[in-house]
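ASSEMBLY PREDICTION REQUEST
Request ID: AP-0331
Submitted by: J.K., bench scientist
Number of chains: two
Total residues: 713
Priority: normal
Notes: Please return the full assembly, not individual chains.
Input sequences:
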Amino acid sequence: MRKQETDSFLDIIQRIKDGDVLLRNKFIDDYKPFILKCVYKLVGNKDNLTQSDEYSIALMAFNEALDAYDSDKNIKFISFSKEIIRRRIIDYIRSTKKNNITIPFSYFSENDNNFEEEYLYDVSSDYCSYYDTKEEIKNLEHEMNKYKMTIEELINSSPKHRDTRVLCLNIAKIIAEDEALFRKFEEKKTLPYNELQKHVNLCRRTLEKNRKFIIAMVLVLKSDLDVLKKYIFDTIGR
Amino acid sequence: MMKQKGIILKIKKDLAVIMTSDCRIISIRVQPGMDVGMEISFNKNEIVHKKNKLVLPLRITAGVAAVFVIIFMIFNSPFRNGVYAYVTIDADASIEFEVDKDNKIIKVNTFDADTNELLKDMDLRHQPIDVAIKEVIEKTSTKDSTILISACLKENKKIKSNDTVQNKEFSQLIDVCKSVVEDDVYGDIQSKVVEVPYTYKKLADSNKISIGRSIVYEKAKEQGIDIEEIKKESIGEALKKVSIDDVAIVHDVKKPKKIADEPIPKVEPIDKTAQTEKKDPKPIEEPKDKVKEAVEAKEKQEPEIKPDTAAKTKPEIKIDPEKKTDTAVKKVTEPKPETGTKLEPESKTEPKAEIKPEIEQKNQVDTKPVPKSEPAPKAEDEQKSESEAKNVPKAEAKPDPEIKPGPEPKFEADKKLESDIKPEPKSEPEIKPEPEPKPETDPKPDAKLESKPEPKPEPDPKPESDIKPDPKPEL
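STATUS: Completed
Returned structure:
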């Protein structure tokens, strides 16, 4: 059996199919090198490949492939889209063979806007929320840097066991909700160990060990990242 | 299939950092379309552990390193540490040395407990073979006066192409062994150095005896002598009964009696050259040969002077015989390593050698030489045809036929040696008469060349002189 596409990839495709235009644009943008390669293989080295008709045809074909792709068919998306691009371009070459004079579409457009920006434009998606979360996460990272830590460090320093994780989240919640503690936390740029010991009966070592994770969670709780906050509360509540 | 949900916090190269719905922070491989802040669902097996990421390249590098080590070992072991040859010493005790290319001992094998005891306090490893042999002789020789040293080349299936190189190195090893026995100062030790093929080593291994003894037993079997009897005796006594000389190449080194060692050449042409090489560095044991050389040299020099005075008009030809004799004298007197390098220039001068005899023949036909000189040109013709047919650069055969008598008479001597060894000294006087006529005949045509046919040789000598200067600087 052939290797299946990963779930996260299928998730993205599914969401594009469901109508996430923003994601679709991003997806096509990420795949542009691949599309260009397909065109190059079929057409050869033209003067201005990105401006050529064939490239536009390929972009449209790729867009079509996104809609037509069926994950149950046991074929990789890459090979599937490659096949569609190939067919469309061959069709195009055949149709234009009779009358050799073809004027590129781009000749008529005066502005240099990208093809997909002009023709794949969709007003319906909500840009605001998307950019909000992006901005918030940037902020969060910035805050973390103040505490001399990065997001990548969290991968290894976040507790593996569910119990410890819930414990840490609880501590983070206490800090975030207690005014005095949080102020101390911001001033010292570290966990207020001594004050915390009054609230929870925990040895200092456990706190030290999970310091980074707790700090990150406190910052998340203090931020406007609603989705992440929801995650945290869900985890504690369960 | 455990599906999980999470928000992408950061994208770094090909990894996306995700905070999952149960508040873990993990990383997965980036898929196209992923962006920071995106909520995404993924499978648990997509999670990339940072440790894994480190381990994977580590494994690859380890694998590559292992491959390199293996390659290194394969290419290095046979040249550095591999056993190159075996040398066994058989006195009353038998010791086998495994020797590498630099004639250093890698391993010492013994065949009984007594010798083991003997070698206990000696550390022979990593010592050159000559030192080791000396030490062993020091320890053992007081009891026994005959030592049989047998050497055999380890057969290597891979390196068969460079036979000549191997042969040279092996002959060096033999030389070392011989020189040790010659130089030793422990009274009247008689010793034999034997070169044997690898098959004997195998045979000896299977019987768990030394090579030397296995040869003796083998020969005893052939000559119908009771092996059981020999087994009890020492090597010296055994050697008196059993003649092993037709086994392989035997070098007798008997110090007190000056019996010249005429090595028995194998039929292989390369071996022949090797022995002539070996012969050269020991002028003391070959007084007769030296006289011969001297005679040859004198006779050669005589014609040299003649043309110088008689025919001053032809400088080209004058140069020719001069050089000839020079090289001839050199070859006889110079040590062996030089002859090894000579092989190349000799092959270069092939055309010259072919031209020469022709001229000589012509001259002889013209002048009808003395009946005495007739056998010599015939021999030359034979040599010529031989060399032409084989195309193998026989060391001294082509450029100067005067030296030829060296290897040639040996054949005859060998035949006699094979039948019985004792008349060794007898064979020598037989050799004498043959080389003598040759120098006589050679100067004659040379002299004729210069004196009589003036117009004829002129076109020929020119190419000679053209070719000649090339080999000289190399010599």
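REVIEWER COMMENTS: Confidence is low (pLDDT under 50) at residues 254-293, 302-382, 384-475 of chain B.
SIGN-OFF: pending second reviewer
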